[in-house]
Design brief:
The chain is α+β, with helices and mostly antiparallel strands. The protein is built from five helices and 18 strands. It has three domains: about 90 residues, Trypsin-like serine proteases (Thrombin, subunit H, Beta Barrel), CATH 2.40.10.10; about 110 residues, Thrombin, subunit H (Beta Barrel), CATH 2.40.10.10; about 55 residues, no CATH class. One of its GO terms (biological process) is proteolysis.
């Protein structure tokens, strides 16, 4: 519940008392408050860290940028830059963007608890900056692992905006169920940023980016990287077939040269750009999986796996 008294924003404490926070005459965005603009979607974000290449990392919701071909971000101080999606956490609806510009970034706070007063900073319709206040009221499982519901109504375009307590980022706005604000807590945000930084991937505007896809924050395992190895193996297999057919016919049978499996695997791994022992093992595993699938369903046959669909959550801000 939110109350305005003498131009101050007040929130009700768990003990029934009211705590009033200083209010600005007109809220102004800072350089850390980010507008996210896509061809068919707009949202909000927050700059949270420095990238390995010296640029800036920005956190927002995955549903803000999902399926978009281009992402442009605007800092609250007026700077603008094209952004690259470098990591995603679908389970918690988070996306990490990277820009080459060096923008200021916020400090990450601690996990909030029920009853904590919070401040929201986001852009209505992804355009007009708004700061509003609320209080963490309950758990909300729709906003990822350990999500919260807070008082204070979010609006369209607020998705991805920052949630603050004591001047530090403690969450990300996710949606507006029941007229309040659902938020993703800081834990998954911190985990996504740290996993990406540990990956050592350096952004290069001249090369396509490989997104780091993480598991849910409740998992102790590291992230899984999107890989096109299966397609590469298919291309290598086709090239080998074409090479075989292009060889001239010999006048007499010649002894067949047998390449040891280890050498074949090393050659395939080198072609994939993963010539380390781990890379060779990955190629071998991929080849065995392909053989097993072919034997199970027949070459080119339909898949027999059963896919379980998870119901899509509603009430998200776009």
């Amino acid at each position: 519940m939110s109350l305005s008294v003498a131009h101050a924003e007040c929130v009700r404490q768990s003990d029934g008392t009211w705590r009033c926070l200083p209010a600005e005459q007109r809220a102004q965005p800072t350089a850390m408050d980010i507008r996210v603009e896509c061809p068919t979607s707009r949202g909000s974000g927050t700059s949270v860290a420095r990238s390995a290449s010296g640029g800036t990392l920005i956190i927002t919701n995955h549903h803000v940028i999902d399926g978009q071909q281009r992402v442009l971000v605007h800092a609250g101080n007026g700077g603008s830059a094209p952004a690259t999606v470098v990591a995603i956490d679908r389970a918690n609806d988070l996306a990490l963007l990277s820009v080459r510009a060096e923008w200021p970034y916020v400090k990450l706070g601690c996990e909030v608890s029920i009853g904590t007063p919070v401040q929201f900073r986001a852009f209505d319709a992804g355009v007009t900056f708004r700061k509003y206040f609320g209080q963490v009221a309950n758990r909300y499982h729709g906003a990822g692992s350990g999500g919260f519901f807070a008082t204070g109504a979010s609006r369209s375009g607020n998705s991805g905006g920052g949630v603050y307590s004591q001047g530090r980022l403690v969450g990300v706005v996710w949606g507006n169920p029941s007229g309040g604000t659902a938020l993703v807590p800081i834990g998954p945000v911190r985990a996504l940023v740290e996993r990406y930084q540990r990956s050592g991937i350096r952004e290069n505007s001249n090369q396509p980016q490989r997104r780091l896809v993480t598991k849910p924050s409740s998992s102790d395992e590291g992230g899984d990287r999107v890989c096109d190895c299966d397609e590469r193996l298919a291309r290598i297999e086709q090239q080998l077939k074409e090479l075989t057919h292009s060889q001239p016919s010999l006048p007499s049978p010649a002894p067949r040269v047998v390449t040891p499996e280890g050498d074949w695997l090393k050659l395939a791994a080198a072609a994939l750009g993963v010539s380390t022992p781990l890379g060779v093992a990955i190629v071998a595993a991929g080849f065995l999986v392909r053989v097993r699938r072919t034997r199970r369903r027949g070459l080119g046959g339909p898949r027999t796996e059963t896919f379980h669909h998870q119901p899509h959550q509603q009430h998200r801000n776009h």
